[in-house]
Specification:
single chain, alpha+beta
Length: about 750
């Protein structure tokens, strides 16, 4: 089989370049030929200046097609020449990466191309002034566009309370102005967008958001098409009113907004109360109903975590606690290394001599005349370490206190054995304790890095309101985003409070949030239960498991378990207890349940394994251990993390080829320092992961490989491996057999 590390391949950058090129082409096609007031819109050049060479070339191509279709190529020659210069700058030299540099280069390109066209066409001074104003506007647009692009590329979000929020406001005005140039009978695209954006702002940021977005969009609409934009003059006031209704349903918000805007047009702007204005308001309100507010909240945030966040001091304190544990662990290790060196050694021969020979009348003869022989005899008895009485050596055959010597040396031998046992037990306990301190240190450090989970107040309030409205008892409900920007909903209740109700709640919240939600297994913690829903990930997991007990047993000692963590990612766990039968089943079941409890509590896999290893070492005086094989799936990124502690090999079918992952590690509970092998694998749709217990002989691997290459039916593969397990062990199955299979599929 091929080496498993070959499957850890990275994505090619081609999809990103292709996406950027498509976006650039559509930008050039849509925004070329639009206007901001009396000046041609600078958006195509500003966008091209902030894209790669391929993206800028795509903007140029889209703009040329737009100009050709509208027969306005000659009228826009300065902008075409400026776009060509921008593309050349992106291709020939290293482009500027700062906002001032991009603004200066794009403005200069537009100015030089305008002067060149003015000289060729003998234009008057007014045209030169117009080209200068266009160059200044283009430079400003490029500056603010760079801020928005940089924020999205760095964090995937636009923080509205920072300077990036101001830049986004300028870009919004320019976009609305450009889209307002697209008018067909009875409707205007920019006006429709203005209405929808105002409603979104009021929904997300209350009355303040409604006023600000209404004012910005009206400004953009007037700059694009004054006749249509003036009909939206009451939009900020409508946004102010509708912000007070953000707790209501989106349908009520849209209805009240439409009716109030119509009445405002009749009352204050009678000359603009036309059919086109009514249609724009109606379509904008309908667009608001179709917008996925949950997805919008993923990238449009009030602010990003900063040093003033409340979570940062707590994160810092946790990090300091982790450092303190690390320091304690290091000091303890150094002290333990020096203790044997400063420990005083006992002279047992001298102590026995003083006790036995001190009052003996033959002391002078033994320790002066026969000193060498007497000392050799004492040393020989000192080396005796068994529980029996030490024999009298030839050198002490004439001693008159033989029984006393044997008794004392036997007592000192017992003391030595006890001291050695205590030292060994202390060393083992110290090792286990240091391992637990290391696990606690890693846990604190890991927790300090995960405190910046982004909770969504708006969606949390919506969920709590819906649960209260429909009469579902829930102590607390929270909506937050995972690291992969997927929505998670947690409802904390009393045990059994929502049993059987989760499908109905999922349907209600899916409609309220306009999302496709999935149910996850509840997590019991003490006297509360966390019921969970999550947004559907990019991939899903198909799985099948089969198990056979050993021939001489009625119960399998293997345990397989499938559950999900806080982010909704599945864990496939397989454990094999020592031996077979009931005792092995208890060991494996306890191991898997402990692991699930740790993962459900937010502890990472490697930390959980270190904690469990210490628990298994100290739980019983009898020797007991269990293997642990963990497959952790990331259904958003299509990634697999394998954790192995004494487990058998895992087989993976990837792109039609079969790979094998194995690790030479000890089972849990066998060594004080539990070792865990961690392997990361990139998966693609239709890849199959096959986890095996050690009851499957390695002689079966050729058959397993053939099955994986020829079939994708998990049930058939697993059952056939189990049915033929006896053949590969010589006919009598003396160990338990468990096979777990999982296949990655598109959601």
């Amino acid at each position: 089989m091929s080496s498993p590390h070959l499957i850890c391949r990275k994505h090619s950058p081609v999809p990103h370049a292709a996406l950027e090129s498509i976006g650039g082409f559509l930008s050039g096609l849509l925004f070329a030929g639009t206007f901001v007031g009396a000046i041609t819109s600078p958006l195509p050049i500003a966008i091209a200046a902030n894209l790669s060479a391929f993206g800028a070339a795509a903007v140029l191509l889209g703009s040329l097609i737009s100009y050709l279709l509208s027969n306005s190529l000659l009228d826009n020659l300065p902008l075409v020449f400026a776009l060509v210069m921008v593309v050349c700058l992106r291709v020939i030299r290293r482009p500027c990466k700062t906002a001032p540099g991009i603004a200066a280069s794009t403005g200069l390109c537009v100015f030089l191309s305008g002067i060149a066209v003015a000289l060729m066409t003998h234009a008057n001074g007014a045209a030169v002034i117009g080209y200068t104003m266009t160059a200044a506007l283009t430079g400003c647009a490029s500056y603010f566009m760079h801020a928005v692009f940089a924020s999205v590329r760095a964090t995937g979000k636009i923080p509205l309370r920072t300077s990036d929020g101001c830049a986004a406001a300028v870009v919004l005005v320019l976009l609305i102005a450009a889209m307002s140039c697209y008018s067909i009978p009875s409707l205007n695209v920019g006006c429709i967008l203005s209405v929808g954006i105002t409603l979104i702002g009021a929904r997300k940021f209350r009355s303040t958001g409604g006023v600000i977005t209404g004012a910005l969009t009206v400004c953009g609409a007037i700059l694009g098409t004054p006749e249509a934009g003036l009909s939206l003059l009451m939009l900020p006031i409508s946004g102010l009113l509708i912000g007070y209704l953000r707790q209501k349903s989106r349908f009520i918000m849209a209805t009240v907004f439409f009716l109030f805007s119509c009445m405002a047009l009749i009352t204050f702007c009678t000359e603009f109360f036309q059919l086109s204005a009514i249609i724009n308001l109606l379509l904008g309100s309908c667009a608001f109903l179709l917008v996925d507010s949950a997805c919008l909240d993923k990238w449009l945030v009030t602010d990003l975590p900063s040093p003033t966040d409340a979570a940062l001091p707590l994160s810092t304190r946790l990090a300091h606690m982790a450092e303190a544990l690390h320091s304690v662990r290091q000091d303890t290790t150094e002290i333990a290394m020096h203790l044997p060196q400063i420990e005083q050694t006992r002279d047992i021969t001298r102590e026995v001599c003083e006790t036995v020979c001190g009052s003996c009348r033959h002391k002078l003869r033994c320790w002066e005349t026969d000193y060498e022989e007497t000392l050799a005899g004492f040393r020989q008895m000192e080396t005796h370490r068994s529980a029996s009485l030490p024999p009298i050596p030839r050198e002490l055959a004439g001693c008159c206190r033989k029984e006393r010597l044997q008794s004392l040396f036997s007592r000192y031998a017992a003391d030595c054995r006890r001291a050695q046992f205590l030292a060994a037990r202390t060393a083992e306990s110290r090792t286990v304790l240091l391992e637990q301190l290391a696990a606690a240190e890693e846990l604190l450090g890991d927790t300090s890095q995960q405190l910046h989970i982004r909770y969504c107040t708006e969606l949390s309030e919506t969920v709590r309101h819906k649960l209260l409205h429909y009469g579902y008892p829930c102590e607390n409900a929270a909506v937050y985003y995972t690291q992969s920007n997927r929505i998670m909903i947690e409802m904390q209740c009393q045990p059994h409070a929502l049993d059987g109700c989760l499908p109905t709640i999922r349907h209600i919240l899916s409609e309220a949030l306009n999302l496709t939600l999935e149910e996850l297994d509840p997590i019991s913690m003490g006297h509360t239960v966390r019921y969970r829903l999550c947004q559907r990930p990019k991939y899903r997991l198909e799985h099948f498991t089969a198990s056979l007990h050993a021939a001489q047993e009625a119960l399998s000692g293997d345990t397989a378990l499938l559950f999900t963590d806080d982010a909704g990612n599945p864990y496939f766990v397989l454990s094999d207890g020592m031996g077979t039968g009931k005792n092995a089943a208890v060991e494996s079941r306890m191991t898997t349940e402990l692991f699930r409890t740790c993962i459900s509590g937010g502890i990472s896999g490697t930390i959980a394994i270190r904690i469990m290893n210490g628990l298994l070492l100290t739980k019983s005086p009898s020797e007991s251990f269990a293997t642990l094989d963990v497959a952790q799936f990331d259904l958003d990124a299509g990634k697999l993390t394998m954790l192995k502690s004494g487990a058998a090999a895992t087989l993976i079918r990837h792109n039609g080829e079969v790979f094998r992952i194995s690790a030479e590690t000890f089972p849990l509970g066998l060594e004080p320092t539990g070792e865990t092998s961690v392997r990361h694998v990139r998966l693609y749709p239709d890849d199959i992961i096959l986890m095996l217990s050690d009851g499957i002989s390695e002689d079966a691997y050729p058959l397993i490989r053939q099955l994986l290459e020829s079939s994708s039916d998990l049930e058939q593969i697993v059952n056939e491996i189990c049915e033929k397990a006896d053949i590969f062990v010589g006919g009598t199955r003396r160990d338990d057999v468990t096979v777990c299979a999982a296949r990655l599929l598109p959601a």
